[in-house]
Amino acid sequence: MAKIDLFKDFEKNISFVILEETYKTFQLCSKDLNPxxxxxxxxxxxxxxxxxxxxxxxxAFISYAIGMELPTKDVMLQTQDIQYKKPVFxxxxxxxxxxxxxxxxxxxVVIFVYKFLNEQSKVVAKGRVQIGIFE
Length: 135
Prior knowledge:
Helix content: 25-40%
Largest sheet: 5 strands, antiparallel
Radius of gyration: 17 Å
Strand order of the largest sheet: 1-3-4-5-2
Strand content: 35-45%
Shape: elongated
């Protein structure tokens, strides 16, 4: 069986929690100290319930899903797009739903659609990601 066949009808749900350790580590790496992410008073003045989590943490969760949760590790992320729909906050529990949308056997490419759902089953982000498969 070709590795690309592993992705036919592929769908997976992966759970994540936005932990303070993740938040602080991302802050250190990115050096993004925008008050929307770091100052609760500022965030509340802007209409949020608290500091808004960094959107790129969700991108990192996609990277984890592609690198660690697929049926083979012989893959490389090629493109990714994401649309942020609702803010995410510290300690939020999210479920990533990742599903095959297209398979291009001739060039060993799989395109997935994905969405992140919060505890209220609301979509907080969605997008597409394309991977290449090493045969």
